[in-house]
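Supplementary Text 2. Reproducibility record for the structural model of the 122-residue chain.

All settings were left at their defaults, and a single model was retained for analysis rather than an ensemble. We include the record here because the model underlies the residue-level annotations in Supplementary Table 4.
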Amino acid sequence: MDTQTGRAVRIVPSASTRKRAKDYAPEAQSRWEAYLLGYQRMPDAELLDIQEVALTVSLEKILSKDGYRVNCDHCGEEIINEREVIQDGSTLCRACAGERYYHPVENTLTFPAGILLDRVKV
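Retained model, structure tokens:
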């Protein structure tokens, strides 16, 4: 979220990222090693989905407990900071529960190759 312009971007791992990681690390000896090597080798556009969004609640309400993670039982997306919803005994992300804290913006963003690697030092 750019607090000066109000623009927000949602970046999440693609739903099939974990499955595809093995394709990029066929020599891996374990699942963990396949994830480690596969994510390093996978092109950014395959690794991550990026979408411009508009928040429907304040940023302060979105942020919660750091380090807390669960997966959505419906779509598999990782849910962080206690944002999950429990419905009929299932753990759901807010989008699958019908309670999104954002809505997609009409324009489509492009994801140039290397955009994250150019800005993030590992």
